[in-house]
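INFO worker-7 received task bundle
INFO bundle size: 2
INFO processing item 0
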Amino acid sequence: MLKTFLTHNELDSASSTFQASIVIDVLRATSTIVTALSNGARFVIPVEKVEEAVDIKMVQPDLILSGERNGIKPQGFELGNSPLEYSKQVVNGKGIVLTTSNGTKAIQKAKKIAENVYIAAFLNISYVVEQLSAHENIAIICAGNESEVSYEDTQLAGFIISKLLERKSYSLSDSSLIALRTWEAIKKPDFSGTHSQKLIELGFGRDVEFCQNIDISPIVPICSSEKIVSMLIK
């Protein structure tokens, strides 16, 4: 079974448990996590609240304090939520604590319903699908935008579903069918949703462009206790 949750709020009433879940926040949390780990970050600690992130930084001052609210870096944070900020020069060998408006909430909720929690972006889709295909019962979790469905997240969910179906047969929930048909209709990233437009207005047009790249990061982030680390791919 492939069941898609089109916003993280749908997880609040989820009654099923899954072998695996895959969390998607294309713009921008999961793209940022993939990029940070690709550039040598040791781990990312995702937290829901700004105050939590600050508290963790106080206890572990070597961590990079990062995140956003309404797209903007909170006061006193070292990095925002732009993947382009997480260069090798900045994050290599470092630990990161990250809080975002939607993505890190989705990750925390995903951990409550699945044994294995992976992180996906267009940047690493094929590598994630290879790991996901070992599972039969999968939750595909779109973070969404403040309780609203994200056009970009839904596209990636559909792309993941299409690639899983190339490997073997799955039954699909109705929301998975919606995501799949959306991807089949466009067949390439189409970042024209409301959140893309908001980021462009805020000056993050380069992020919107960057997050459309496919398979440039050959890693699979996975949640390990409170941290996200990069899996060793055999």
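INFO item 0 finished
INFO processing item 1
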Amino acid sequence: MSDHFSGPAVMGDPAVDITDFYAFPSPGRPGNLVLIMNVFPLATAQSFFSDVVTHRFRLRPLTRSERGIAAGATEHTIDVRFGDVPEGTAVQKGSIVTSDGREASFVVGEPLEQDGMRVFAGLASDPFFMDVEAALRTDMSGKLSLDTAVNTVEHRDVLSIVVEIPSAPIIQQFGGASLIAAISETVVTRRGNPIRIERVGRPEIKNVIMANSARDPRTKGVELRDLYNHEDAFSLSNVYRPLYETRLDTNLAFWDGLDGKAAWPSGSDGRHPLRDLLIDDFLVLDLSRPFTPGSFLEIERALLANGSHMTAGGRWLDDDILDELLTLMVNGGQGERFGDGVDAPTRPASVSFPYVREPNKRADIPLPAFLRS
């Protein structure tokens, strides 16, 4: 389910589990970029942000060529940290530092605007929506079984971090490049080099495309997601990259064949045509384009077709990412649109800051079936 529970390690500490990552131009303030990192699946009013990890956003410029896109070395970072909650209180405080010198302190649950930057952190309605059981049923059976249309995440909450910053300084730092890559991470930074706990670019890379370990003889029975989570998205290990590649090749071929046709014939070496694009696991945005809902994967589809993109790309809160990804994998977007029948979150996003919706605060919802098992 997007990136909720994306490996055994993060399942042991929900406070460091990134459930979703969103990046889009501000709907109401052109020239601003919005980044949202949600953590702590199934959060409650008693949940707090981790005071151990740094919640980090990373941006890099992208260069397009005939072979695809490549991320540059220049980087813009935004670090959000939280303090411990004093005994006897329920108030948590946080701080934000950007690599271009913006700094601010804030209180969880209270929006802040300072120096052209907006920040909000707090409990919110989980904006993700998906029929998780239907996707798992399809993955296990080998047949399209997306007909129950039950939103597994309905009425659930998460802890959300929302940051809105001006785009112009980022474009200037990147030498005028407006096409960028964006990722989110939870890292431990107290001593020496940062230790990455989890990172998220595109949704469902780990939980839909990478999770099943039964098909690839090279990595059969091996849980790769924890290892993949620890990798730098912009510099995968040469030692482990071949394992990720064969897992993606095999599972992408499986999803492609669900309609009985091959939209993406693999090469003689088994390389799947979508592998190189998706293994570069970051959201792709064009900061020169205005806010456009429904543009998830639009830039990637244009790259695959060797054409020009028309939108800002990235990911908006209400984008139906599973339908978009499933249709791309199964038929390349040429024909029937595939989906799980769940087309909207519990509470549609707001077009005003902080964009996420008020929490549901429901305590009467049982664990999803896939977690109980």
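INFO item 1 finished
INFO post-check item 1: The first helix runs from residue 8 to 11.
INFO post-check item 1: The chain has one domain: 8-356.
INFO worker-7 idle
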